[in-house]
Amino acid sequence: MKILSLIFFTTIFCFAKSFSQTPADSLLNFIVSNKSRSSIYLVQNDTVLAHVNENTLMPLASTVKIMVAIEFAKQAAQNVIDEEEYVPLSELDKYYLPNTDGNAHPHWLDYEKKLGHIRHDSAKLIDVARGMIIFSSNANTEYLMDLLGFDNVKNNIQLFDLKQHTAIYPLVAALFMYQNPKNKNEDNVLKGIKKLSDQEYSRYIFDMHNALKFSPALKEKFRPQDLTMKMQKAWSDRLPASTTKEYAKICKILNNRKYFDENTYGILSEVMESVMENPANQKWLKHAGMKGGSTAWVLTKAVYATLKDDTKLELVYFFNELTESENAQLQKWMNAFELRVLSDPGFREKIKIIL
């Protein structure tokens, strides 16, 4: 049975001048042909080049983790937390729910072990934060949300004056709600969940989140095999949501490096800008960062970059109501599309004209 993965597929840019035009054009053509299921907002040096459904709320999936990364950088820069502190892996494991992240957390652990970063079964906080962004570890995300304070993460919505952003809550604990109890009619269960107000829905999730921390045995009651596609779809539809225009606003704050102090941006670059560790990217980019996310129906991505010639670009694009094959195909096209947008002024002009 297919179990959804709330993950970000890591994208490392290749050489800027070595791309095939076909995948980039294919993704653009998909947007043109499927505008009701697509949203895009592209900005160059404060000028909006393209916008489609930019004010339409769509589930963010793991792209919402940008908000956690920002709060992490703020608190580390203010010495509220020590990014060099080591966290026992056993603490992170309390937040790990198998079969819900496409093995993102185990892959992150393997990566850190190969680099020799794990000491005494512990990892540095900064590496935990990087694992949240690069590998999209849900366990790392929810650990950090607790450490930083959910209210502090949520308050960034007001800080950035985001008008369209639903509540931020633990993503994994909500899955317990969608386990279909035995001998219960699935449609009736979903109707009951749908009737819950946002406040009631969030309260249940936070209760389950806290229970998971203090009762490891509760994990054994999680039955991923009972999460039917209909249940997963209902969960996906109610994930924290926002718009491409709002996340382009966040990307601009990250890109301009004027909103926060130098220390905050320094930590943000370490967490958000792993693409700059590729020497090929250093040749044509001053800095760049990104985060994306997916469920079986949702695909989201937020990208920002400043080029060597000081051109600043923010690209945010979301899809919803995708089929499994569409989702898989779009993921294959995304890297080429982003490369073309960032490196090819002619392609940006083409997007402007077409959209």
Write up what this structure looks like:
By secondary structure, the protein is α+β, with helices and mostly antiparallel strands. The chain folds into 2 domains: 21-61 and 243-261 and 268-354, Beta-Lactamase, CATH 3.30.450; 63-237, no CATH class. The chain is built from 15 helices and 9 strands. It has helices spanning 21-33, 65-77, 89-93, 104-115, 125-135, 138-148, 150-159, 186-195, 198-214, 229-237, 244-256, 262-272, 279-282, 324-343, 345-354; strands at 38-44, 47-52, 58-59, 86-88, 122-124, 241-242, 285-294, 299-307, 312-319. The chain starts with 20 loop residues before the first helix and ends with a helix.
Assembly classification: single chain
Q: How would you sum up the major sheet? A: 5 strands, antiparallel
Total of DSSP H or I helical runs spanning 4+ residues: 15
Which structural category do the helix and sheet elements fall into? alpha+beta
Mean pLDDT: 92
- Neighbour order of strands in the largest sheet: 2-1-9-8-7
Radius of gyration, taken over Cα atoms and rounded to an integer in Å: 20 Å
Q: Into which percent range does the helicity of residues fall?
A: 40-55%
How far apart are the termini? Answer: 38 Å
Strand/helix succession:
HEEEHEHHEHHHHHHEHHHEEEHH
Report strand %. 5-15%
Write down the overall geometry. Answer: globular
How many distinct domains?
Answer: 2
Spans where pLDDT lies below 50 across 5 or more residues: 1-20
* Number of DSSP-assigned strands: 9
